[in-house]
Design brief:
By secondary structure, the chain is mainly alpha-helical. It contains 18 helices and no strands. The longest helix is centred in the first third of the chain and has 56 residues, at 2-57. It is elongated, with a radius of gyration of 31 Å. The chain crosses the membrane at residues 6-28. Pfam families: HEAT_2 (PF13646).
């Protein structure tokens, strides 16, 4: 028994020693990090003005040449802050040229680092600074089988911004389709010529690419594509019709009531809902009788948007009061009452 207690004490003492060593290690690392950060901040303060002058004026007397890790970190942080804050092609071009000369070797090495976080941070920096010197390495990295989805997505964003032709191939022939969010992000990054490339080949694209492309027309208010949307609101694909109607609604484009009649009778409640929204944007009194029918819809959101759209049309509020007073349909009556009260009109049971 005595021997067992001694073993327990020995184990406890060993664990305590390990814990003390581990805490000591953490404290030492923290102290080192704090010392490193203090030196970086001090260096940033000493060069901030000179770097700012150089980037704006290209005054070689103020050019900064970092020589070690502390100076590289300081310049990188300042440059990142300037890049996020400044406007204008000239200053951004100066930032890119300076970053390419100073940081290309660093980022080239980090793209091959074993740690994923280091590779991702290098990719983010390449995008922020607009580096063009590593695009060949980025293409190679994208085509590697062991590159992660996050790395490939970030590389795609960079290739789009740099207008490298590979991005079209990678987006349309991906072994695994990108997420809808990622497609939207890429389309939102594109310039008008790049976006038009995808419009031109729309019929050849998979639907998972077509849908976010249509979404971005509405999100980015691309009024030049209204006719394109009107064409695809007649598509045989239910989802394409819904997305086209949604983008037309986002653009606040007033269609004719006659163009919406078929959509108000769709089997898809989302399509019926978007159509009711657009009828309100027509401000055409011919749409009131159609919206009255939508007040009887089985789906709450269709009924709600129908009543709301009625009140956007001249004489629509009076029409909705009439519906409330005369209808025998409970759905219509309840929805009319709700929206009339929201409009400040008291209804009497």
């Amino acid at each position: 028994m005595g021997m067992s207690i001694q073993v327990v004490y020995a184990l406890f003492g060993g664990l305590l020693l390990l814990l003390v060593c581990f805490l000591s290690y953490l404290l030492i690392q923290k102290a080192r990090l704090n010392a490193f950060r203090a030196k970086v901040e001090s260096y940033k303060d000493s060069i901030k003005e000179s770097l700012f002058i150089y980037l704006y004026r290209k005054d070689e007397e103020h050019r900064i040449e970092p020589k070690n890790k502390i100076e590289l970190a300081g310049v990188e942080e300042l440059l990142s802050g300037f890049s996020a804050a400044v406007q204008g092609d000239d200053i951004r071009n100066n930032i890119t040229l300076y970053a390419e000369k100073v940081f290309t070797p660093k980022y080239k090495k980090e793209l091959h680092h074993s740690r994923w976080s280091v590779r991702m941070n290098a990719l983010y920096a390449i995008e922020d600074f607009g580096l063009t010197t590593l695009t060949d390495q980025l293409v190679e990295m994208y085509e590697k089988k062991n590159s992660t989805a996050a790395e490939k997505n970030q590389i795609l964003k960079i290739l789009v911004k740099l207008n490298r032709p590979e991005f079209v191939i990678y987006m349309t022939n991906a072994s695994k389709p990108l997420s809808e969010f990622m497609y939207r992000s890429l389309f939102g990054t594109m310039n008008s010529e790049q976006f038009q490339q995808f419009i031109n080949k729309f019929e050849d694209l998979q639907e998972e690419i077509q849908l976010p492309l249509i979404d971005m027309i509405g999100i980015n208010h691309k009024l030049e594509y209204i006719d394109f949307l009107k064409m695809h609101m007649k598509s045989s694909s239910e989802e394409l019709r819904i997305r086209s109607l949604k983008s037309l609604n986002a653009l606040s484009f007033p269609l004719k009531v006659e163009e919406l009649t078929k959509h108000l009778q769709s089997d898809m409640w989302q399509e019926r809902m978007m159509a009711t929204k657009l009828v309100g944007k027509t401000r055409d009194e011919k749409g009131l009788s159609l919206l009255e029918q939508s007040l009887k819809d089985s789906h709450f959101l269709v009924r709600s948007n129908a009543a709301q759209s009625m009140m956007k049309i001249p004489t629509g509020t009076e029409y909705l009061v009439h519906v409330y007073e005369t209808t025998d349909d409970k759905f219509s009556k309840d929805m009319a009452a709700e929206w009339l009260e929201k409009g400040g009109i008291t209804v009497v049971e």
